[in-house]
Amino acid sequence: MNGPALAAAAAVRGGERSAREVLDEHLARVEERDGELHAFLNLTAGAAREAAGRVDEAVAAGIDPGPLAGVPVALKDNLCTRGVATTCGSRILEGWLPPYDATVVRRLAAAGALIVGKTNLDEFAMGSSTESSAFGPTRNPVDPSRVPGGSSGGSAAAVAAGFALLALGSDTGGSVRQPAALCGVVGAKPTYGLVSRYGLIAFASSLDQIGPFATTVADAALLLDVVSGHDPADSTSLAGAAPRASEALGRGVEGLAVGLVSELASAEGLDPRSAARTREAADALAGAGAKVEEVSVPAAVYGLSAYYLIAPAEASSNLARYDGVRYGRRVDGADITEMYLRTRSEGFGAEVKRRIMLGTYALSAGYYDAYYGKAQRVRTLIARDFEAAYQRFDALLAPTAPGGAFPLGSKTSDPLLMYANDVCTIPSNLAGHPAVSVPFGTDDAGLPLGVQVLGPALGETVVFQVAAALEAAAPGVSR
Question: In this predicted structure, what is the pLDDT of residue 479?
């Protein structure tokens, strides 16, 4: 089904509504409720109104402003925006004004989108609940006593609360898909390299990927199509024509082979209701004409362990640049060593420090081969096992998260319990493959649950095709 972003853009391009009217409608919702939810760290209403004026002028002049004309979009605050504070949810970057825009930000502007603000996140995107932000937690719009997921919790909450029609987040180990599931919206992680990372502040460079949030699969596909494609400014950007996520949304799944990943469908700690919803989703796809069978991806069970060596190792390297010398926070000391120590001690929060120490240890002399090197070999096994599954299946199916949104503060004292929230999403990041989380029913408390569709590298077209069929079959969807 088409979504409100597609509808708004069509109305603005056709002159039925003004971009300013659409924007003001969403800013009013922000004014009404964001004091409670704290989805935004920085609202850019003035710049958005100026952009809306340009869109309306273009329409009046008979010029097409682009496929996202007048559509309010929120950005995770680890995406560089020229002249607008970009903090990564950290004190160490508080008040930093980037001198350039991320590639995705430029592509949004060229498509006629209205950037309404920068959203809250776990500090440097390290977390699964948006509670490790230095600027306070975000709350789930469905139940404000609970987390929105993380690390892109602010973006997920902004879309779920109707503050923006679309949002961008980053997904390193599930940071788009998991909060999408917990907030009851659609979230996607594209193939690694499909979306430029230029201007995305790095956490773990071999895993990070920018992805869309939307209320429908069609809207998410539209946003992905706008921001994807080769970028010479990013050395990891894939060359060649990008797959079109929106190309096959209405084709259904008749004749497609879909595999239910047994290791993820029965993962340790999976809530029985989440497991049941995933099997209901498999049955729904079978009822729609897909051939659905269980499939084993044996190495997927090692995903969590491998990830929490690889990602912190890359983070320890990437975050070394925050030293109080070039930019960002600086806390003076008696000498340069004391300045480094005080800057990093006061600038970083507990979770970031924990991961820097884990990563530095894994990369240290005498331990590199035992930890980091072994984790990379496991990563290769995971990719090979997925590739073997895709020899038989067009797409795979799995839960997105172990369960629904959990209460604020309930897991902050146990890092291992928090990390387990990513058990079902991490394997796709390690393999570099695309995956889309689609809302599919609720848990026993009435909180949203998500089911994810996984696909092979550059398989966005079939992944979104299956996701659209899943969306149409979801409990509570009128057909």
Answer: 40
Mark whether 411 is an active-site residue: no
Active site residue 305: no
Does residue 478 have a cis peptide bond before it, meaning omega lies within 30 degrees of 0? no
User: Does the pLDDT of residue 1 top 80, yes or no?
Assistant: no
Cα R_g (the chain), whole angstroms: 21
pLDDT, tens digit (0-9, with 9 covering 90-100), for 51-102: 999 999 999 999 999 999 999 999 999 999 999 999 999 999 999 999 999 9
Per-residue pLDDT, 327: 84
Task: Kindly name the residue from 132, 133, 175, 196 that is annotated as catalytic.
Answer: 175
- Identify the CATH number of the domain in which residue 223 sits: 3.90.1300.10
Which residue among the candidates 76, 118, 189, 411 is catalytic per the annotation? 76
How large is the average pLDDT for residues 233-240? 97
Query: Of the listed 151, 196, 237, 274, which one is catalytic?
Result: 151
Number of domains the chain is built from = 1
Domain that holds residue 153: 4-227
151 noted as active-site residue: yes
- On whether residue 36 sits in a domain, the answer given is yes
Kindly provide the residue ranges of all beta strands, DSSP E only, lying in 289-329, ordered along the sequence: 291-295
| pLDDT tens profile 241-252 | 999 999 999 999
